[in-house]
# Entry
Amino acid sequence: MHTTGTRPVLDAWLDLQCPDCHLAQQDLRLLRERYGDALEIRLRHFPLEKHAHAYAAAQAAEEAYVQGRGEEYTAAVLARAGELAERGEEVLLSVATELGLDAEEVATALIDGRHLLIVDADQAEGRALGVTGTPTYCVGGERLDGSRSQEGLRHRIEEIVDRMLRTAAES
# Structure
């Protein structure tokens, strides 16, 4: 079971060029609103080979985290997944500029590969856990695959998290 102390952890495995992952952002927002600090939500990278720019997007997102705007950057890139598919890295730099990030530093990070290990480690861990598509969620020792359908997933996550919180409170 992934917990930080008694706080449950939800790992959300995403591909930043994936249209379904963009839709998953709404569920993650609602989970944040419902649980606040009682649930740690970690966005994890799982760029799929079929999405040519997903790997670069994951690296750019890591640079955005370094610059303090990772979640906003991730959401903005996901909202433009179709455009990313068409225009590639140009979109990643445009989003950085729009959010007030140092776009030159994002471009340099894509060239020098300073965030490759983080992206690779996330992807390797996801594979080890059985992640094959995105979005996929891991919470309370359960893997929930949203790559086929996201219907009912947020409700299932809530059931697991509620159970984990009750168990922690009883301990």
Observations:
- The first strand starts at residue 3 and ends at 4.
- DSSP finds eight helices and five strands in the chain.
